[in-house]
Amino acid sequence: MARKPAEQSVNRLDILLAAANVFRRKGYHGAKMSDIAAEVDLTAGSLYHHFPDGKQQILIEVLNEGLDQITAEVQAVVDDNTLMPDEKLRKVIYTNILGLTQNTSVAAALVFETRTILENPEARKAYLKRRDSFEQLYTQVIQEGIDAGIFRQVDVPIFTKTILGAHNWVGVWYREGGRLTGEQIADEMSNTFLAALSPIGVPTAKN
Amino acid sequence: MARKPAEQSVNRLDILLAAANVFRRKGYHGAKMSDIAAEVDLTAGSLYHHFPDGKQQILIEVLNEGLDQITAEVQAVVDDNTLMPDEKLRKVIYTNILGLTQNTSVAAALVFETRTILENPEARKAYLKRRDSFEQLYTQVIQEGIDAGIFRQVDVPIFTKTILGAHNWVGVWYREGGRLTGEQIADEMSNTFLAALSPIGVPTAKN
DNA sequence: GGTATAATTAAATCACGATTTGATTATTTT
DNA sequence: AAAATAATCAAATCGTGATTTAATTATACC
Question: How far apart are CA B164 and CA B170, in angstroms?
Fold first, then answer.
């Protein structure tokens, strides 16, 4: 039954990537089906052969695939029990940022287009669940470090959102061929957050 | 000539605020002129009396006003020469975050809708200039601290974007009436970045 | 080679939403 | 209370863009 797909025809993944590119340039609502189609040398109507449920479904799959992939990469680090909390967090941040710089279109979609998917009641719940799981990876690692006395006592949810906000933004401003490589940026940012968690030298709030 | 505006009629600022609210809920492209109008008890057509140039002009003014206001608040702190670099940065961060939590609709627009304005060639240049000036406020304060030997030697542009990314994200997730007040969040986050700049306890990169 | 299925297209359809237009009502000025 | 101007509305207009449809071409399977 399941016949081998033809070699030259486009597949779902091609289309998702193309869509992510167009979304980055114009945003979801600004992206015409014909724009996405053109990106893979098709006509607008042809997309409905691959995605019968249309434009919104394409967005949903871009975000789900994108989030799942980055989650898997980070999860692998979290599951590595040979790492101390500080090394682990450093590697988590590094992995996360490198992932974003390697696929900026999807990274940007995860920042800018999530809101759109959240308006869809069915997709909403599933997506929020995924996103919470992802966020959990960070809270978990940070909490472990605090419990182990390696990190100072921060407000874990806020610190997590601080990291994630900084990360998200990388997907927006990073451009290949810029002053720094993805690796250098990932290094610098993991240094920053590790320093922020260092238990010594905590400044006292003056406000 | 300039007659006093009628007491009950809506003014431009009402409309800009209303638009920001709708933009937050639906995004610029998802926001109908009738949605914005309804928010101030008008019909879609009436908006053209106040904004002859239409929807995009409304967005442009929302972003310009919003950015100008937050810039002014931060600038005032930067100009205070009685502050040491670390106190100054703390206060800058605090002020910035508090500003965002106090007007989340505009804050969200500054994150999500900037891309739209950048597609408009005329508005683009002016807006980028404003945004650069704003970013400069941070790079300047951070650099001063490094030069004074109070901060460790970070990559200033990256550190700035790290801070700004974290800030931007506050405007997205913060909700009034949540676990923490805007002040508490501002405190926590300024602690984080001040700690990150602390010259002692710098962890060595292991990647 | 013939048949079933997949991939694609060109040309409708169809709704929606920004903007325009031509009144109508309110307010201010004198 | 006119006259002028501002604010508003209801009802067109008008283009655009997602989706549908019916046909055409390509590929896989036997």
Answer: 10
Query: Quick count: other Cβ atoms within 10 Å of Cβ A176?
Result: 9
Chain A residue numbers with beta carbons less than 8 Å from the beta carbon of B191 are 154, 202-203, 205
Do residues B65 and B130 make contact, with C-beta atoms less than 8 angstroms apart? no
List of chain A residues whose C-beta atoms are within 8 Å of the C-beta of residue B170:
161, 165
Q: Look up the ipTM and state it.
A: 0.89
DSSP H or E stretch at residue B87 = helix B85-102
Measure A38 CA to nearest chain B CA, in Å: 20
Specify whether the CB–CB gap between A170 and A111 falls below 8 A: no
CA separation for the pair B156, B138 (Å, rounded): 9
- Domain B55-197, what fold? Tetracycline Repressor; domain 2 (1.10.357)
| Architecture of the domain delimited by A56-197 | Orthogonal Bundle (1.10)
Structure confidence by residue, pLDDT tens digits, A130-183: 999 999 999 999 999 999 999 999 999 999 999 999 999 999 999 999 999 999
Beta carbons of B161 and B134 less than 8 angstroms apart: no
d(Cα B205, Cα B171) in Å, to the nearest integer? Answer: 31
Which backbone phi and psi does B34 adopt, to 5 degrees?
A: -70, -30
| Confidence band for B11, pLDDT divided at 50, 70 and 90 | confident
- Which nucleotide comes closest to B50 if you measure CA to C1'? D7
> What ranges do the domains of chain B cover?
55-197
